[in-house]
Design a protein that fits this description.
Layout: H1 4-15, H2 20-27, H3 31-39, H4 46-56, H5 60-70, E1 75-79, H6 83-96, E2 101-105, H7 108-117, E3 120-126, E4 128-129, E5 132-133, H8 134-144, E6 149-154, H9 160-164, E7 170-173, H10 178-185, E8 193-194, E9 197-198
Parallel strand pairs: 1-2, 1-3, 3-6, 6-7
Antiparallel strand pairs: 4-5, 8-9
Helix pairs in contact: 1-5, 2-3, 7-8
Length: 199
């Protein structure tokens, strides 16, 4: 596990002149919880990160970034309203990113709910999602976590200009291939760890 979050937390805590016990009391957790966060054996969830940011007087994004970089199993999602695309795409993503947690979705509402409780490092989004729009979903995901990398998937290159205006990292024409995914990983706006190697 990367030590970025543990080092960041310890530096912020000591910079405030707080002991582990002091911070634990402010956080309403045990001192051993703080110790585990600082030795890298555990990561706090989103609620605890928000509480840490208030206790330490630091922007939440600073801690979220450190936590995301410390996660040995980054969350990668693929969203398409056609289940055959999900069935074909998920094995390709697992092949290229064997240490990532790959999750497929066909409904935008489920994606948003998932993103609110999980740090999404990379999202592959179909541009046409039935009555919904992948471009609108992209904007929502970036509101939840501005450091989410988004790669649009489509069978039509006509959407490219609209897709780029969202702040996405990339654009792929279907079908998904290992080579195509590897190219996208090299061009991410916010690179992340893939089992010890940084993309």
């Amino acid at each position: 596990m990367s030590k970025l979050f543990s080092q960041t937390l310890k530096k912020l805590r000591t910079g405030k002149g707080l002991s582990q016990n002091d911070l634990a009391q402010q956080m309403y957790v045990t001192r051993s919880t703080i110790a585990r966060w600082e030795n890298g054996s555990r990561l706090p969830d989103a609620v605890m990160i928000s509480r840490l940011s208030r206790c330490l007087g630091v922007d939440t994004d600073t801690l979220l970034f450190a936590a995301a970089e410390s996660d040995d199993s980054p969350n990668v999602i693929i969203v398409d309203d056609r289940k055959i695309i999900l069935a074909g795409g998920i094995p390709v993503l697992e092949e290229v990113m064997p240490h990532a947690t790959i999750t497929g979705f066909s409904r935008p509402s489920e994606v948003i709910e998932y993103a609110r409780f999980n740090r999404v490092s990379l999202a592959f989004l179909d541009i046409e999602l039935g009555k919904s729009s992948g471009i609108a979903l992209c904007r929502t995901l970036l509101e939840i976590n501005p450091r989410t990398n988004v790669v649009f998937l489509t069978a039509y290159s006509d959407y490219a200009m609209d897709a780029w205006s969202t702040g996405a990292s990339g654009f792929m024409l279907k079908p998904i291939t290992p080579e195509g995914v590897k190219v996208q990983l090299k061009n991410l706006r916010y690179p992340f760890s893939l089992g010890g190697a940084t993309t």
